[in-house]
Automatic annotation (TrEMBL):
Reactions the enzyme catalyzes: dITP + H2O = dIMP + diphosphate + H(+); XTP + H2O = XMP + diphosphate + H(+); ITP + H2O = IMP + diphosphate + H(+)
Name of the protein this chain belongs to: dITP/XTP pyrophosphatase
GO molecular function: dITP diphosphatase activity; ITP diphosphatase activity; metal ion binding; nucleotide binding; ribonucleoside triphosphate phosphatase activity; XTP diphosphatase activity
Cofactor remark from the record: Binds 1 Mg(2+) ion per subunit.
Origin superkingdom: Bacteria
Organism (species): Hyphomonas polymorpha PS728
Binding sites annotated in the UniProt record for substrate: 13-18, 75, 157-160, 180, 185-186
Length: 199
């Protein structure tokens, strides 16, 4: 596996929340993260049926468009009582244009409809790296927690206001970003990537 040499890295994402978190997480390692959003790259359709498949598809597309090593993130919320939904469809549950208040309400109403008292859930993040020589790698991170209702906090993005990580009292939407970065699914995947690819 080639090392990821600190320098320019394309973040193959159009999600502003991810761009900001990936910049925070990679800047300390000497990377200049420039996103597909900032570069105006086309957003590929997520046609695979797994986080890893979609992550690889996004990394490959950005690498091909720029000729630079590309890092993508495919992630989502997996709710135990909903059989792992919304999972890879987490962004799509918010509709177009995306409305995460609506998506959080949908999770809550489906949870109620399920009749289950189990409010456990996890966030999953799969990071994929695609190098111009065709090499590819994927790293996965998870954080387990509980869903709360109503939503709390204005920070973070997506479903953060309804997710409380195990052992915490604040939602990811209430937490200082540094604290989310110390325990999140994304931070855990970055840690695995760091251990494998960075000197
Ligand atoms: O509350 C959250 N805190 C997080 O830390 C988090 N990480 C992922 N998610 C949700 O999962 C979807 C991923 O879908 P996704 O991987 O297809 O990303 P996306 O479509 O938003 O951007 P892109 O990277 O594909 O361009 C996102 O939109 C979010 O709803 C999160 N929600
Ligand atoms: Mg997406």
């Amino acid at each position: 596996m080639p090392r990821l040499v600190p320098g320019k890295l394309v973040a193959a994402t159009h999600n502003k929340g991810k761009v900001s978190e990936l910049k925070d997480l990679f800047a300390p390692h000497g990377f200049e993260v420039v996103s597909a959003l900032e570069l105006g790259l086309d957003e590929p359709e997520e046609t695979e049926n797994s986080f890893a498949g979609n992550a690889l598809l996004k990394a490959r597309a950005a690498m091909k468009a720029t000729g630079l090593p590309a890092l993508s993130d495919d992630s989502g919320l997996s709710v135990t009582a909903l059989g792992g939904q919304p999972g890879i469809y987490s962004a799509r549950w918010a509709g177009e244009p995306r409305d995460f208040h609506k998506a959080m309400e949908k999770v809550e109403s489906e949870l109620k409809a399920s009749g289950s008292a189990d409010r456990s859930a996890k966030f999953v993040c799969v990071l994929a790296v695609a190098w111009p020589d065709g090499t590819e790698a994927v790293y996965e991170g998870e954080v387990h927690g509980t869903l709360v209702w109503p939503p709390r906090g204005e920070r973070g993005f997506g479903y953060d206001p309804v997710f409380v990580a195990d052992g915490e009292t604040e939602t990811f939407g209430e937490m200082e970003p540094e604290r989310k970065h110390a325990m999140s699914h994304r931070a855990r995947a970055v840690e695995k990537l760091r251990a494998a690819l960075l000197a």
